Amino acid sequence: MNLNQILEGIKPLDESAKIKASARLDSLIKPIGSLGKLEDIAIQIAGITGETINSVEKKCTIIMAADNGVVDEGVSTAPKEITAIQTINILKGLAGISVLSRQAKADFKVIDMGISSNIQHKDLISKKIKLGTENITKGPAMTVEEAINAIKVGFDTVEELKNRGYNLLGTGEMGIGNTTTSSAILMALTGSNVDESVGKGAGMTDEGLENKKRVILKALEINEPDKNDPIDVLSKVGGLDIAGLVGCFLGAAYYRLPIVIDGVISSAAALVAYRMNPLTKEYMIPSHFSKELAYKHIMDALGLESSLNLNMRLGEGTGCPLMFHIVESAAAIIKEMATFDELSMDSDFLVDIR
Ligand SMILES: O=C(O)c1ccc[n+]([C@@H]2O[C@H](COP(=O)([O-])O)[C@@H](O)[C@H]2O)c1
Ligand SMILES: Cc1cc2nc[nH]c2cc1C
Q: Can you tell me which residues form the catalytic site (predicted)?
C-alpha cells in the first residue's frame, strides 16, 4: 500500500455509534456529563470501533528508537550512546516505561529505526533505516524516501498489532536529541516563535538552551522546510523515530484503533500525521501534559487537551500506560454502570449542566 492509499483509506469516526454511546452514558445512574473526560473517551472509542461497549484490555506501546545527527551540535547534555544503552534497559524491563507497562498489564514493542550502533537484543525489532540521521544544521535529516520508508514501518507495526488482537495502542520513543527535532517540526509547521518552542529536553543549562535555539534556527534556515508539506518538514528537520511514529498514527486511524500520545516527541509526530490527514486526530488520545515547552504549543496546534498533569518529561512512552488505566476505566463505566431504567429510578430531576 502506498502513502496516498493509506491517506485515502482513513475514514471519520462512526457518528451513529457516538450518538448511541452518548445516549447510554446519559442513561447511567449519575448526573449527565458528570464523568467528564471518561465519557468523552468512551464516546470516542465507540466512534472508532462502531460499538457502544468495547474491550481495551490488550494494550501495547510502540517505542521507536533512533539517533539524531544534530546531537553533534551540543543540543543535549546526554551523550548519544544513551539512546542505545537505554533502549536495552527498556527491553531488560528496567526503565520507566518497562515498570509502568508492567503495572498497567500492557505490552511494549521496541523498534530500532536508526540507532547509530548495531546493538542487539532478542526482543529488539530491527527496522534500521540508517545509522542515525544527518546533522540538520548542514542539510536534511534524511531523504524523502527514507522518511516514507520509516512511516511504512510504523504503519506495518500497527497492522501487525491489529492482527494480533491489540485494541489500544500507545506511542513512545528513545532518542537523544529528539526534543530538538520535535521543536524544529513545531516551528516549521506552525511558524511558532523560538522562545516558546524550545525547552531543556532531558536536562540542559541556560547557556545550552540558547545554543539549542540557535541550532534549530540554523536548521530551519539551511533546510527551508515547506510548512504546507508535512513530509518535507519531517524529512528535513525530523528524525527516524518521529517518522516511525507518524506511521503509527496513520496506521491507527486506518485500522480504526485508539492510539495514545505520550510526550513532546510523540505529539510532534501526531502533528505531522494530522497535517497529512486531519481525520487522524479523531483516533488520538493525549495522555499527560509534558513539561517540555513545545508540548503545549503542539497540543494547541492539534486542538487536543491532555487529561493528566504529573510534571513528567521522561518520554519512552511513559504517559501511555498511565493513560491506559484511564481508558480502561472509561470502557468499564459505559459497560458496567447501571441505568436509571434498570433500577426503576426516576431521572427527571436531573438538569443537563454541561
Ligand atoms: O516526552 C517528553 O515530553 C520528553 C521531554 C524531554 C525529554 N524526553 C526524552 O529525552 C530524550 C531527548 O532529550 P534531549 O534533551 O536529548 O533532546 C529522548 O530520549 C526523550 O525520550 C522526553
Ligand atoms: C537516562 C535517560 C533516560 C531517558 N529515557 C528517555 N530519554 C532519556 C534520557 C536520559 C538521559
A: 316
Q: Note whether residue 67 is domain-resident.
A: yes
- Residue range(s) defining the domain that contains residue 212: 59-79+109-324
**Does 271 map to a domain?**
yes
Q: What is the number of structural domains in the chain?
A: 1
Has residue 206 been placed in a domain? Answer: yes
Question: What are the CB-based long-range contacts (under 8 Å, 24+) for 209-213?
Answer: 211/73, 211/74, 211/75, 212/75, 212/180, 212/183
CATH of the domain at 119: 3.40.50.10210
> Is residue 175 assigned to a domain?
yes
Q: What b-and-e string marks burial along 101-132, b requiring 16 or more CB atoms within 10 Å of the CB? A: beebebbbbbbbbbbbeebeeeebbebbbbeb
Catalytic residue among 39, 173, 316, 328: 316
The residue whose CA is least distant from atom 11 of ligand 1 is: 176
174 Cβ inside 6 Å of ligand 1: yes
pLDDT digits (tens, 9 = 90+) for 117-163: 999 999 999 999 999 999 999 999 999 999 999 999 999 999 999 99
**For the chain, which ranges sit under pLDDT 70?**
none
| Mutational test site, ligand 1, from 70, 179, 198, max ligand atoms within 8 Å of CB | 179
201 CA → ligand 1 middle, Å: 5
pLDDT at 353: 79
Does the annotation count 316 as an active-site position? Answer: yes
pTM (2 d.p.): 0.98
